[in-house]
């Protein structure tokens, strides 16, 4: 990654992760509210349900060595390690996140690599992980692809570290599909640019573009799905939670980048409403 983008992402998550955990808990991703988005759920349960529904959708029933690319504070890593009695490895650009995830693994009795389940966490660039070829039978990327400045290189790295027969599960922010006769409008491009600026994103692409890259990289059994409706209520829930006294006080302490992100929450909500922002799923095997 470019050093400037690297620093922006690191600083954003260093500053905001503690407040997010305080208000929302360990899972730093969307929730699942049924395929039509109309199932009422407690917000943290919705996030756990998203993990379970992704596994069900990708037909992953077991794993031994898991890479969580963009692990946050270890929510998915620890959950998957416990579910599959596996060894999970999480990577993030944020030293604050890696330290907190390591602490949480220790609290859960999962920091010893000699027993399973276990989890370990590193500050690493997901485009250049330094892991050996064929290291993991599950690569999990839950809302990290949007941060990658080179989508092809990211998927190429996921493919490289997968064991033969291993599975990639990716869920990421996308924009709507486009065609030469139906490109993004000027207004849509500006809306996306505002999201990029606030959430430290280089750019997003459409789900068909991700599928094309996966095909070029020789992934097998490629499947995609658009779960925008299923997760769209999430942002309104976040907006509601940001209006509590504890959240407002936490925002004031967490710094300007986090405050900016909170003030811009409606950008994502409106993006879903107008069909511009999409929640894309991709899975494939090596």
TrEMBL record:
Record-annotated Methyltransferase type domain positions: 67-170
Transmembrane segments: none
Annotated spans, SAM motif III: 161-170
CDD domains registered for this protein in UniProt: AdoMet_MTases (cd02440)
Annotated region (SAM motif I), positions in chain: 66-75
Keywords tagged on the record: Methyltransferase, S-adenosyl-L-methionine, Transferase
Superkingdom per UniProt: Bacteria
GO biological process: methylation
GO molecular function: methyltransferase activity
PANTHER family membership: GERANYL DIPHOSPHATE 2-C-METHYLTRANSFERASE, ZGC:194242
Protein name: Methyltransferase domain-containing protein
The organism of origin for this protein: Trichocoleus desertorum GB2-A4
């Amino acid at each position: 990654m470019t050093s400037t983008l690297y620093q922006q992402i690191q600083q954003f998550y260093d500053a905001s992760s503690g407040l997010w955990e305080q208000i929302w808990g360990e899972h730093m991703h969307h929730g699942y509210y049924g395929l039509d988005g109309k199932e009422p759920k407690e917000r943290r349960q919705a996030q756990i349900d998203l993990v379970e529904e992704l596994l069900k959708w990708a037909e992953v029933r077991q794993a031994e060595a898991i890479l969580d690319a963009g692990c946050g504070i270890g929510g998915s890593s620890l959950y998957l390690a416990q579910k599959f009695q596996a060894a999970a490895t999480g990577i993030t650009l944020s030293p604050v996140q890696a330290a907190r995830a390591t602490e949480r693994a220790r609290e859960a009795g999962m920091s010893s690599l000699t027993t399973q389940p276990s989890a370990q966490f590193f500050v690493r660039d997901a485009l250049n992980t330094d892991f050996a070829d064929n290291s993991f039978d599950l690569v999990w990327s839950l809302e990290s692809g949007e941060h990658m400045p080179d989508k092809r290189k990211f998927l190429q790295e996921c493919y490289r570290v997968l064991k033969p027969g291993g599975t990639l599960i990716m869920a990421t922010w996308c924009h709507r599909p486009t065609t030469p006769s139906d490109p993004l409008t000027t207004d849509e491009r500006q809306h996306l640019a505002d999201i990029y600026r606030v959430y430290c994103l280089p750019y997003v692409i459409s789900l068909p573009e991700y599928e094309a890259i996966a095909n070029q990289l020789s992934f097998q059994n490629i499947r995609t799905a658009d779960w925008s409706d299923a997760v769209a209520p999430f942002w309104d829930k976040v907006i509601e939670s940001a209006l509590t006294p504890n959240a407002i006080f936490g925002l004031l302490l967490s710094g300007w980048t986090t405050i900016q992100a909170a003030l811009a929450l409606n950008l994502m909500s409106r993006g879903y409403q107008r069909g511009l922002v999409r929640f894309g799923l991709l899975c494939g095997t090596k």
